[in-house]
């Protein structure tokens, strides 16, 4: 059995008068969410046209981006097969991946003085001579004739071969590509992994498998009577002339020192200044105002700008990086510390003051124990954050791994080394994040007991 309750006009007016916020909602209360969505869509549309997002995507070199990404997890052997005195002479870049005169299975000499470049079996290869390059795609030959100032391909070509002016481009997918010119053939042969990451071609351990290396390290005879094989391996690894492990690890440690020292100095300076900025600690309006404005000035200038300024003043190196972190953190930590001090429990201060303690003792025993866990927690967070920031400011000349990273990117050919340094930075950031979180959780836990 059900009943229906019907309000009359008097009851409806009485409820409306008693609860006007419910029955007479404003426009924003009714349509605020929808209005916000429309505003965001209008804003994004305006940004799309204002920043020319469409043309930027259309003009993007996506093929080049794909090649760079492949360089992160693979390596390219890039010999130039130059035409000299009727013969083909391989010429290697500074990052030569093979020892001089070492046999290479995919680059084989031909009886007539040329070379055969194998990409994917004999069905996809180049047979290079000074007058002709036979391009094989799926076993079918497409001869490229080198005549005068032109390398000329046949009329009917598959999609892997393209005539580009007086040169011919050949693309075999991930396996690599080639550019056939009248004076040389520029070869790119790609393989998974990082070539010579452990040892360069000058090392006695080059080319040995992991099993052979383990045997040499554990029970093999010494290759150098003056040191163990393990010590020999470590030295050759750090002295790798291509990957420069010793230099990269040294720059990484420099970055960590920059972050730690800059954060430490910022903490030590911000701590006493925050007591001057806190209105409930220092009863001087001028001192409060002046100190807070100093904090605003220091933190309003980005760390990168400070790094540029100090780099121009002191030259490149870790000192400008430490100074940039110190200035920025002094302003940011000073503001955070001052706000924490202004929210302390005055009962503890009054208790210490009631026994006749000096102002310094009041702050030491009545204020500092309340805020010290918060101060240390914030400093640990800034230390963790500055580990990442030190990489960025290093790229503008403040030293550290950031500068090394910028140099590798500038070559436009060392993207595998870029990936290596990025992975090192990520590992350090994850490690420091774990350490910082553990320390902060311990401090917070102590305050709860």
From TrEMBL:
Source organism, top-level taxon: Bacteria
Q: Where is the ABC transmembrane type-1 domain?
A: 252-436
Looking at the UniProt entry, the stretches that span the membrane are: 31-51, 256-277, 418-436
* Protein's membrane topology: Multi-pass membrane protein
Signal peptide (UniProt feature, chain positions): none
- Please state where this protein is localized: Cell membrane
The main location class comes to: membrane
Q: Which UniProt keywords apply?
A: Membrane, Transmembrane, Transmembrane helix, Transport
Q: InterPro entries attached here?
A: MetI-like, MetI-like_sf, PhnE/PtxC
Q: Which family does it belong to?
A: Belongs to the binding-protein-dependent transport system permease family.
Q: What is this protein called?
A: Phosphonate ABC transporter permease
């Amino acid at each position: 059995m059900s009943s229906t309750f019907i309000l009359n006009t008097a009851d409806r007016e009485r409820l409306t008068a008693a609860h006007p916020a419910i029955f007479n909602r404003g426009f924003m209360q009714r349509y605020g969410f929808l209005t916000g969505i429309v505003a965001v869509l209008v804003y994004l549309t305006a940004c799309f046209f204002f920043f020319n997002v469409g043309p930027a995507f259309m003009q993007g070199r996506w093929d080049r981006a794909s090649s760079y990404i492949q360089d992160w997890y693979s390596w390219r052997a890039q010999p130039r097969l130059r035409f000299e005195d009727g013969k083909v002479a391989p010429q290697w870049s500074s990052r030569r991946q093979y020892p001089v005169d070492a046999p290479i299975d995919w680059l084989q000499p031909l009886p007539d003085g040329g070379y055969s470049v194998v990409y994917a079996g004999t069905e996809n290869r180049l047979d290079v001579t000074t007058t002709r390059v036979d391009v094989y795609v799926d076993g079918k030959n497409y001869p490229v004739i080198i005549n005068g100032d032109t390398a000329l391909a046949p009329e009917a070509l598959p999609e892997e071969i393209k005539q580009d002016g007086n040169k011919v481009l050949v693309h075999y997918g991930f396996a690599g590509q080639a550019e056939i010119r009248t004076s040389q053939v520029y070869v790119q042969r790609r393989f998974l992994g990082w070539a010579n990451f452990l040892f360069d071609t000058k090392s006695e351990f080059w080319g040995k498998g992991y099993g052979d290396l383990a045997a040499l390290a554990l029970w093999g005879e010494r290759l150098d009577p003056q040191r163990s094989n393990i010590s020999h391996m470590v030295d050759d690894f750090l002295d790798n002339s291509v990957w420069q492990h010793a230099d990269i690890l040294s720059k990484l440690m420099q970055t960590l020192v920059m972050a730690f020292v800059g954060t430490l100095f910022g903490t030590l300076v911000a701590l006493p200044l925050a007591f001057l900025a806190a209105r409930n600690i220092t009863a001087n309006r001028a001192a409060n105002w002046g100190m807070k404005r100093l904090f605003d000035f220091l933190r309003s200038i980005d760390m990168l700008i400070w790094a540029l300024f100090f780099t121009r003043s002191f030259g490149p190196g870790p000192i400008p990086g430490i100074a940039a972190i110190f200035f920025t953190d002094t302003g940011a930590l000073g503001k955070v510390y001052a706000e924490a001090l202004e929210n302390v429990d005055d009962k503890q201060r009054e208790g210490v003051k009631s026994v006749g303690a000096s102002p310094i003792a009041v702050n030491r025993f009545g204020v500092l124990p309340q805020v010290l866990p918060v101060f240390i927690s914030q400093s640990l967070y800034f230390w963790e954050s500055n580990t990442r920031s030190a990489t960025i400011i290093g790229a503008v000349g403040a030293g550290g791994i950031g500068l090394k990273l910028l140099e590798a990117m500038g070559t436009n050919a060392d993207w595998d080394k870029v990936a290596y340094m990025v992975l090192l930075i990520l590992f350090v950031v994850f490690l420091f994040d774990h350490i910082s979180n553990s320390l902060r959780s311990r401090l917070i836990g102590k305050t709860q007991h």
